[in-house]
Input
Amino acid sequence: MVQGKRYAVFAIRKLDNGSSVWVRAGSAFLNKDDSMNVYLDVLPLDGKLHVREPGERKDAAGSTASANGLNVVTLESMGGH
Output
């Protein structure tokens, strides 16, 4: 891991139909001692967060589609502040 590198933080919601919606919850940064600082814009309803290296690409609708086809929702696409 690289110090100062930015990571994406997601809250993953499982839907009744078996699919998942990934909501961008914030960002995380790696420190010199390999610990992380996590900055949240939203709080997950189930208390679970997923941290990964950024690599998603935005589509025309403002949501984000990742390379592996997961559904990602951003605050902008939800009308957030």
